[in-house]
Amino acid sequence: MLPDLPPLPALTRAEGELIDRYLDVVDLLGRINPARHEDTYGGLRAAQALVSRAAELRDALALMHRRGEREMHAATLARALRVLDGERRSARVVVPPDPDN
Are the C-beta atoms of 49 and 31 separated by less than 8 Å? Predict the structure, then answer.
């Protein structure tokens, strides 16, 4: 049985799209990270997919801007990222600590 997750904060449809596309890009960057993987093919496939996902992220931001959503409500968006496991997912993008230290 899965644990109860905190509720997702109220987001506009465009903000929800922004969060989803951002996490898509983060996931792909984590798969590309050369400090975490030894497989070039998986990294290549992720890099190829990154192009279209980055365009979708750009489009989500452009839609927000066109709709007059000029401000990013960082605290609310950060809460949504936490609920959607964004901390773990984004940790795969950074260089891991040196095991010798």
Answer: no
Q: Say if pTM beats, i.e. exceeds, 0.85.
A: yes
Sign of CA dihedral 66, 22, 39, 94: positive
Q: For tokens 């905190």, what's the residue?
A: 6
**Of residues 26, 5, 2, the one with CA closest to residue 79:** 5
Tokens of 30: 């984590």
pLDDT tens digit at each of 101 positions of the chain: 666 778 888 899 999 999 999 999 999 999 999 998 778 999 999 999 999 999 999 999 999 999 999 899 999 999 999 999 999 999 999 998 888 87
